[in-house]
Structure to design on (166 residues):
């Protein structure tokens, strides 16, 4: 009887361990639930969701471009509480030549999810990016929450091309 109990206990522990989700899986589930509850049609790419608000008519943004953009940042848990923004003046940012598919340790000001989202935009367009915490700021507290899933509202103002001959 003792052997059966121990076997049952070991199987239960093994099954419970298999059901554990990673932080990314939990975040993606939360984002999908948020989108479904609000009937938001968003596309998924590289583990972020993006919603095109205004398509834009200019060039498509690519990795390696220097871009000018305006943004608003919210968290999924508090979508009506603005965390950060730049709406008066466009910020300029050089996208990495290769936008990574995930974030590990980053000192970059902008998150991997934000970078991925920008590459889905055209100049003059506005989009929302729904970014899981592991593609954002990870454990770092944002808006009073660790592992915060992010919502970026972004307007791509310009792709800046510099003359490389000088």
């Amino acid at each position: 009887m003792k052997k059966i109990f121990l076997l049952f206990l070991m199987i239960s522990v093994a099954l419970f361990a298999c059901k554990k989700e990673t932080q990314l899986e939990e975040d993606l589930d939360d984002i999908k639930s948020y989108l479904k509850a609000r009937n938001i049609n968003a596309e998924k790419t590289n583990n972020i969701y993006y919603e095109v608000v205004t398509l834009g008519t200019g060039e498509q943004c690519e990795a390696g471009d220097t871009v000018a953009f305006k943004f608003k940042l919210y968290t999924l848990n508090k979508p009506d509480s603005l965390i950060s923004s730049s709406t008066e003046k466009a910020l300029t940012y050089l996208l990495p030549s290769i936008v990574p598919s995930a974030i590990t340790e980053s000192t970059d000001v902008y998150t991997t999810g934000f970078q991925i989202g920008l590459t889905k935009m055209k100049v003059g367009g506005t989009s929302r990016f729904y970014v899981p915490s592991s593609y954002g700021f990870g454990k770092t507290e944002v808006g009073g929450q660790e592992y915060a899933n992010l919502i970026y509202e972004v307007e791509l103002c310009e792709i800046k091309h510099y003359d490389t001959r000088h």
User: Anything to note?
Assistant: The two ends are 82 Å apart (CA to CA).
